[in-house]
Amino acid sequence: MKYQADLRYDLIQINKPILGSEERRAVLEVLKTERLTDASPEGGPKVREFEESLENYLGSKHVVALNSGTAALYASLLALDVKKGDEVLLPSFTFVATANAVLMTGASPIFVDVSKTDFTLDIKDLRAKVGRRTKVVVPVHLYGYPSRMHEISEICRNRGIAIIEDAAQSLGATYKGRQTGSIGNLGCLSFYGSKIITCGEGGAVVTNDDALAGRIRVMRTQGVVGEKGSRLFGFNMRMPEISAAIGVAQMGKLTTFLAGRRRNATTLRSLISDIHGISLPHEDKDRLGNWYVFTITVSSKRDQIAEFLNKKGIRATVYYKVPVHRSEFYSSMGYQKVQLPKTDWAAQHALSLPVHPSVTPNQLESIASHVEKAVSDLNLKAQS
Ligand SMILES: Cc1ncc(COP(=O)(O)O)c(C=O)c1O
What we know:
Elements: H1 21-33, H2 45-58, E1 62-66, H3 69-79, E2 87-91, H4 97-105, E3 108-112, H5 123-129, E4 134-137, H6 149-157, E5 162-166, E6 174-175, E7 178-179, E8 186-190, E9 203-207, H7 210-219, H8 241-251, H9 254-272, E10 278-279, E11 287-288, E12 294-298, H10 302-311, H11 328-331, H12 341-349, E13 350-353, H13 361-377
Parallel strand pairs: 2-3, 2-4, 4-5, 5-8
Antiparallel strand pairs: 1-9, 6-7, 6-11, 8-9, 10-12, 12-13
Helix pairs in contact: 1-8, 2-8, 3-4, 3-7, 9-13, 10-13
């Protein structure tokens, strides 16, 4: 999910970084030290501080900070020795990075359908697609909403299949009280500009496994340890110290950010709950989302509604209009033939609305009234 920098400040953007004096001070402090990066597997002091802060927050033994969420996915797959001949099961209804990381290892992505209620892996289809060559399942907590981790773990446990959570969008979302990203064998976070907290660019791998964490620490710096040269395959996935320092400052605000998102989501839900022709995001007591976005489904004319809202300065956004298996590149490999009916439905009906902490109560009123106007002007039918 990509944040679109927009110079029209009157727009209600879909997501927006919140940066203040804490981040500015943190950057200047690193500049003063002149220590901008560190090529040891342990990383520099700011990287370590950022990792420790995430370890404490997530309740996980290890966090390894990297330079993107995509690198986190790739490093996780490499650490599990995923390679050509292996199959990795994942949704097609996700940001393409999830699938690209699999392709980079030489393994085959196998696309699994998603639930129409919450857009996470469809358990029945997952069960049907697990096979002899399945090495990893990658649940994506899309829109910051947790996947059904209990059912997924049950499917994987006795078959020796590892789980890598794609928690790029879900920092702070919980499954039965546990932080998403900390539940699978490995979890991947992103700190891209649109995310819950940001470093500009950045990512991290979360794990309780000492050996996997150790491998990824070495991999992030070309596989080199000390003076012995390269111990294993790796490349440059290091997070710069300035990015980590911004991350530390952002971590200090995470709880406030999440509370703001939840408050806005609750308000928006109550403002639009009576509009017919739309369905509101799912939430149950075991799975609490972080409100990365507020994704509704629209019975028809979704694109016209999005266009109407955009014209009114509300950056309602369609994530993802083209599911990965139907994209030009993946189609060229034959993936468009895979039948994923619920994914196709989601790609045609889902519409994300902004609820990030900078959205004001007046703006929420404006979003709600414009959704209502769009729906009544376009004469939407109730959803079946
Ligand atoms: C679901 C998902 N997976 C992976 C990524 C990749 O993260 P990054 O952009 O930090 O490489 C993103 C974010 O952009 C994402 O939304």
